[in-house]
Amino acid sequence: MLHFSAPAKINLSLKVLGRRDDGYHILESLVAFADIGDRLILKKAEDTTFEATGPFAVSAGEDNLVRRAHAALEADIGRGLPCQMVLEKNLPVAAGLGGGSADAAAALRGLSDLFDLDEKALLPLAENLGADVPVCLDSAPAMMRGIGHDVERLADLPPFDIVLVNPRQTLATAHVFAALSLDEPGQAAAIPDFDAAAVLLDFVKGQGNDLQAAACALVPDIAACLAALEESGFAYSAMSGSGASCFGLCAPGSGRAMAARYRTLREKDWVVAGRLIGAGDTKIDETD
User: Fold this and answer.
1) Catalytic one among 38, 132, 161, 221?
2) Residue 222: which residues within 8 A CB-CB, separation 6 or more?
3) What is the pTM of this model?
4) What is the tens place of the pLDDT at every residue in 195-248?
5) 35 is catalytic
6) Is 132 a catalytic residue?
7) Dihedral angle over CA of 273, 56, 218, 189, nearest 10
8) Is residue 87 within a helix (H) or strand (E), and if so which, with residue range?
9) What whole-number distance in Å separates Cα of residue 22 and Cα of residue 180?
10) What angle (nearest 5°) sits at the alpha carbon of residue 166, between those of residues 165 and 170?
11) Out of 9, 38, 161, 221, which one is annotated catalytic?
12) Cα gap 110→107, rounded to integer Å
């Protein structure tokens, strides 16, 4: 039995650089991962089963991204991969944290490891499963460009604690992009060496999230979350992805205290404290 982590994906910055003729938007985003996320358990079996558990348990139907990843891998190699799959869903859905994409990526990595498959085949499958799945294959900092398939891995970012918050509202990505004005598309940025906390903070403050205003107009509670994060004293706070989740960066070791401060302002929100991670932090736990 193998346990795989599916860490939350956080867009520390997100610029919209334009839109292609096929309707897809061209993005540039500094992506990081947190030691907060879902958990996938895999075990070889005679027949394939799938179960979703946890506080945000999702549908176990065929449209679930874990099941779709499993089916795509079976189709690609031309044989069955019978196993038990249990997804512990700890991240809110439709929340801008890449939860479904991280789950799909964990399924691809996990099944490849469980059945000793060639990992080189995983990237094309990830690209077909969703725009955010490729960057989630390796839970390491990256610049994500284009429609999400152009991923440039970065050296580890400076250490930060991070607090994730959500007003317990879902927000469809398509609705946010539909409400986005592209009168003045963003410009590609020069990427510095993120070798110090101040460099990272200066970069994300300068870049921001181009989807934030549109999302706040659709879900005003996002603006309330951001105001509470600012009042709590985080070094930087913004919305992640297309929302509705937001995050606050703070000094290492201070995350829990900062989360508690936020809860005094918005006690009904989903609030979790953790830290930014690098690829070396994502481990496989093996059990009998």
Assistant:
1) 132
2) 167, 171, 212, 215, 216, 239, 243, 244, 246
3) 0.93
4) 999 999 999 999 999 999 999 999 999 999 999 999 999 999 999 999 999 999
5) no
6) yes
7) 50
8) strand 83-88
9) 16
10) 155
11) 9
12) 5
